Amino acid sequence: MKSFIYLILILLVFVGCSIKPEVKELPKWEKERYYNALVSFENNCKSIKAKSIYTSLCKKAPHAKNAKKFFENNFALKEMKSDGNGLLTGYYEPQLRGSLVKKAPYLYPIYKKPKDLIVVDLASIYPALKKYRLRGRLENGKLIPYYTRADAKECKLDAEVICYVDSKIDRFFLEVQGSGRISLDNGKEIFVGFSNQNGHRYSSIGKYLINKGEIKKENISLQTIREWLIKHPKRVDEVLNYNKSMVYFEIRKFEATGSLGLVLTPKRSVAVDTRYIPLGSVLYIDATVDGKKFDRIVMAQDTGGAIKGSVRADLFLGYGDDAMRIAGELKSPLKLWVLVPKKRVDE
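Request: output the structure for the sequence above.
Response:
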């Protein structure tokens, strides 16, 4: 435990020194749909975190008569930089088929947070670690790692089941996406979203398949991974269990919502690494999406286990087959700026 905490402290020191943002004026983006950006900003301001960053601008936004001038007159850009290359990926809201009762073909449970999962907040003892959590379970009075994905199959988790779905592969990708909708066999539809996680680090099954020589690196995507798993049913558990991380869910009232608790807006909401970018921040990204230049204002409204780095974002693409296709293929070089209120630039 001590060695883990010491390692995190060292990482924080180096991470904190890696970014030196430069401030400049907003460019005159002619292709930006400023009205849509303003609507997204107003929705973003429903969160406490966004209000804390853009207090006066959140009050001003509903009265703005010209969306373009609102952004150009009130914001400046701080470019995010890192030693590595920026990366934009995508995610979507998957749809699964399920049942409230376990019966064929609905055999794979969607779990709520286990009752014996302990989450330790280190902030009260180590303020520098306020963004980190330890997760585990008690055994003979000691905190030990929680069950891995493979363990969960062998033992009975002390957790309520929301419903059962008909595909362990689709359930896995639901965990990767973090939220989704489930069409039940009784005709109803429920929305589920991230509740907690077992504490094990996310490991990419795509990289696993590449290293095993099953899929070429240049061909890797959500679609090719899914196709490979379907064609190799006897190896599904082997591949999925490589990722020891497991996500637990809760029922939501609305469609896909992010870490801010807000309904996500397709192509306007992104997941970020909160070690570098606070949730609620307004960003400008420059990348390529579905073969086209994609430069626009977006809102940092979500997080993800695989989203690591200062110039790293995961773009929410919405719901449906097209969203799934684009999300599965999206891996674009990324440039990223944070929009800061002009009056705070020199603070």
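The first helix runs from residue 2 to 16.
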